[in-house]
Amino acid sequence: MKRAQSVRRAVWVVLALWAVFAWVGPVMAQEWKPTKTITAIVPWPAGGATDLTVRILASEMEKVLGQRISVVNTAGASGAIGMQNAYDAPKDGYTWTGNADVSVVNYPVLDLMKVTHRDWNQWYALMTPNIIAVTANYPAKDLPDLVRMMKEKPGQVAVASAGVGSSGHTALEVFSTALGVKGRHIPYAGGNPAVVATISGESDVVMQLSMEEADMIRAGKLKPLANMSDQPLTISGYGEVPPITKWYPSFPSIGSHFGLMLPKGVPQDVIASVSKAFDVAAKSEALAKFADQKAVFLVNLKGAEAAKKMEDVASIVTWTLFDTGSAKVSPAQFNIPKPKK
Fold first, then answer.
1. Topology of 38-128+255-334 in CATH?
2. Cα separation, 84 vs 287, whole angstroms
3. What is the dihedral of CA 294, 300, 302, 304, to 10 degrees?
4. What are the tens digits of pLDDT across the range 277-293?
């Protein structure tokens, strides 16, 4: 009798476990399927690097998610207004944002946001290095020549950027600190105005992003001396721009990663579905064509890999801005470690 009861109990346990797994299995396998339009906030004006990147990603990801992704431009405060709006929205997966990693890590130390880079889930599709370029007739024949001229005339070589805290300004500050030079920073209201100002002779040098300089390099109006990554950059229709590490092997890679962000707190099934759609977009022909046109590197960074990259970027960028007096708040307040020397 006892043996029979034991067998029956064992059978019931097995059946109960089977029922639990049969119920849990589909739940665990569920994917988030959006049922309404998704809003992707671009915190910059239309036509810029972030805007163009987000629109291509959105177009490709719509095909996977089965819902429209509406891109909305909300500019102001160097992108901080749109980012804050995205962070404050309900964390249900229906409000995204897009930006560059350099901008995101800078907001807290520039006292524009309390939200840090650690408060976002991130997906990066493109890496656009900064290019050190001069006007076509500028006397510097190569990068060491420019460095020599900047050392001989400290504070006299004019360098245009998209504004304080921008990628171009950050590149200048890292360049100056690493190589012991000093340029005369001239901020403009965006990357394109900085490039145009250099071509017109208002500035001698520009260190903006490759996608902002590529067309003028092809046209022969800018002369590229180096890209600020650790690998050669090919600009179709022009040729190869050598990496800065050709001359300065220990120079840190400077550029911006562009992609999408959702605030932490969004359900994991949303994150999984966004990641799946992003993988498709990152491998798309449309993005590859855009990367070739704009002279940028294709990447696919997300999850822990994206978080690690952001920590590296934050360490270099925020401390450089703080140590040079451009940032108002110490990165130490956000537990951002100083870069290793």
1. D-Maltodextrin-Binding Protein; domain 2 (3.40.190)
2. 27
3. -120
4. 999 999 999 999 999 99
